[in-house]
Amino acid sequence: MTQTARHRPTSVQDLKDLSGRELGPTAWHTVDQSRIDGFAELTGDHQWIHVDPARAADSPFGSTIAHGLYSLSRTPAFLEELMAFDGFAHSLNYGYDKVRFIHPLPVDSRIRMRATLTSVEETAPGAVKVVTTLTVEADGIDKPILVAESIGRFTV
To answer: Transmembrane region positions (predicted)?
Structure first.
């Protein structure tokens, strides 16, 4: 399900104005076995805890769990629900810092994301580096599934 972004910054000042504010949460996204299997196929990571429900049922988790990188790979789409950067001439995912997979994600869980712009640094006139803390949470699980710092570079 695609939603219209809630925030549409078009200038460096717009980004600075969002700094420190929590954005979200996004809509829920269900992570079923077919999505986990598809991710395993795409990445070549067919580790049994992800793709073998019978064997995983006897594991400490009691079921298969999604790859940690599955949750991380969902963050750009989740971020698009929260913010649109179409007002910028260029936007680039520069990378991630401090990625932590805090809690396993059982199959058939629902996840969503919250984001906080933690740093907005003008690197040149009209150019900005934005660090956003991304927190992926699962319905019914007290701890976050994932916390990561995403780094983006934008030019007006």
So the answer is: none
Residue at 11: amino acid letter: S
pLDDT at 36 over 50: yes
- Rounded CA-CA distance 22/82 in Å is 10
CB atoms within 10 A of CB 57: 11
Place of tokens 């983006």: 152
* pLDDT for the residue numbered 1: 44
- Res 3 pLDDT > 70: no
- Cβ burial of 58 (10 Å; 0-12, 13-18, 19+) is exposed
In three-state secondary structure terms, 13 is helix
Q: Answer for the pair 144, 137: CB distance below 8 angstroms, yes or no.
A: yes
Residue labelled with tokens 């695609």: 2
Instruction: Write down the mean pLDDT value for the chain.
Output: 94
Sign of CA dihedral 27, 30, 35, 37: positive
Q: What is the DSSP string of 103-130?
A: S--BTTEEEEEEEEEEEEEEEETTEEEE
